[in-house]
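Narrative progress, year one. The postdoctoral researcher (J.K.) led the effort to move from monomer predictions toward full complexes, under supervision of the PI. The following entry was the first complex the group processed end to end, covering 388 residues in total.
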Amino acid sequence: MPRTIYFDYNATTPLDPAVRATMQPFLAEIWGNPSSVHHVGRKARAALDDARDRAAKFLGAKPSEIIFTCGGTEANNLAIFGTARALKAKGKHLITSSVEHHAVLQCFDYLEKNEGFAITRLPVNLEGRVAVEDLKRALRPDTTLVSIMAANNEIGTIQPVAELGAVCRERGVIFHTDAVQWFGKEPFANIGQFNADLVSVCAHKFHGPKGAGLLYIKSPLHPDPIFFGGGHENERRAGTENLPVILGLVVALEKFIKPAVFERLKLQPLTMKLLQSIQNIEGCEIVSPRQNCLANTVSFVVRGADGISLMAGLDLEGICASSGSACSAGSLDPSHVILAIGQKSAANSLVRFSLGRDSTAEEVDYVCSILPEVIRRAQLAGKAASGL
Ligand SMILES: Cc1ncc(COP(=O)(O)O)c(C=O)c1O
């Protein structure tokens, strides 16, 4: 078995040992239920309150504006279902984009199909970017919520979120951004920089634990809950709080966001080298934008090959990549992001390399040396499959 080269940091990152160490006491001695009134429970409650205060301080928010969730998917679901339903008396028109993660897109699909909402899905340009003018045109008097991601998981496009948020604020429309891929990769100062009322964050994308995230909810917005059964999280999310991962999330936030653990200065030359090498391979076309793109992400499509053969070929060489969002790996569904940027014929052949903290120049050199042959083999398999 060749050595492992992990170029799939947008799917997940390894748990940092120091983060794991701070979680340890909450898997052992501090095990109480924060809702219990006795001293064992009160000890857990104190830790939970402290974690919320620290998260709020770090983000520049009020503690009551932080809702701990089990990750990015739940944060998105709470933001979208909770807000759409809470404001439905005001209007039932919602806006999103065509390149969102499925954890956003499928919430809107559900609301459209089952609850009578009208959805506008904004188009994107060839780089996967939403135009502020398109948002302005799409807003209606009955629009209550707009949800546009901060950075795209498949091709790395950074959206003009602050501008989109400012437009919404001016028009009195709630703005949500899925910033799951953005945190830890771009410079963060304060949660206010997004001009958003709702921001989704997920710990395992920046060396925190899986199953941990948060939703920032700017007061006084009060989305309807999507979980029922208790008054936890300020009446917004029922269920006994998962202290070990909440602590892991908070420590990872404090450690890896300011400065960003995905260092642009280190990663840019590495992804640049990959990009130059990919450009020279017959049939390959880069689909990540040249500017306003996550520095760790290089995505490309391969004419005449499919994502599964490409992933398998890379994996045989020890290289972990992705053919789109991890959630659709294993299926041959075309990438909705590649379709949205107008590359219909190549939507089944996406390859995403996403680098991170431990990626090295030597790994990049190795991938560049092996890639032409892996691609040639996948194209041959594609030819054989199509009977050419
Ligand atoms: C942009 C984006 N949103 C949401 C999610 C879902 O996050 P989680 O894995 O925490 O449910 C992901 C995960 O890949 C993502 O990339």
